[in-house]
Amino acid sequence: xxxxxxxxxxxLTILLSLALIILVTLFLQETELGTRRQKVxxxxxxxxxxxxxxxxVIRGVKAGSVEAVELEPGGWVHVRLSLDKDVTLPPDPxxxxxxxxxxxxxxxxxxxxxxxxxxxxxxxxxxxxxxxGTGILPGAVLPDVAQLTTVAGSIAGDVASVxxxxxxxxxxxxARELRASIRNVNNLSAELARTVRVQSRNLDTVSVNVREGxxxxxxxSTAFARSVAxxxxxTSKGEVQAIMRDVARTATQARDAAERINRMTLSLERTEVSxxxxxxxxxxxxxxxxxxQGTLGLMVNDPGLYRNSDSLMMxxxxxxxxxxxxxxxxIRLTIF
Length: 336
Known about the structure:
Order of helices and strands: HEEEEEEHEHHHHH
Largest sheet: 7 strands, mixed, barrel
Radius of gyration: 58 Å
């Protein structure tokens, strides 16, 4: 009887241990029994350090977890998210994978596309993963702390390199050159001061000249006033009217001369048109002669005509000489 009691206690202990292990496992996996969940699938080229059980958040609030990470044909990775049934997805959602803490924990964030952080790499990943089909969300991996540390280290190295170059550039020689430049600036400022003093003396001279010019202008205005007075006295005797009549007569003659010049210009224009026409025709004739067209062109451009003419002249000279030498051969005179 005692042995049966021990076996019963042993079996009960084993069952209770198994039940406890199952409950702890379900608790650690945050399994909700009897609760319907939303299923969301996103595809990525790389999922970083996201594993099954990683958190899924919306606007920083826990909304579920990663249920599965699966490899798909074509080099894609599908991440299946299990979300609470009362969670509402944001408009035009995308899934971003990134580190949630400094201890290597990662999470999946569902966010609207318009709220995606600016970055060419993230935008390229979303564009590549957008054609996954109906119900599959595009996804991208945000740079983690290690990548940011690497970039920061690279930037620090660049800064150190720049600082080293600056230190090399500003050596003792550069300091001496800088002091020399400062001395040159001081010399330049002294030279400018001397120039200003000289120009101030020149300005004094110019002001004296201006005063003298003003006095000359006053004298000229006085002389002009006297001239006006003389003109006024001349108008009283009719001299200005006579001058105006002469000016009018001269203007009439100038107008007639202008009309004659205008007619001559028109005649010259017509003559120019005729001359242009004649020159055009002459140019056309000369072009045809140059190209060997027509009788004159053949005569001018055919060297054989010249050679034949030369031989003909030579034969004609021989014929005349022979005629002078033997006239009876060619001329027979019979008298009845």
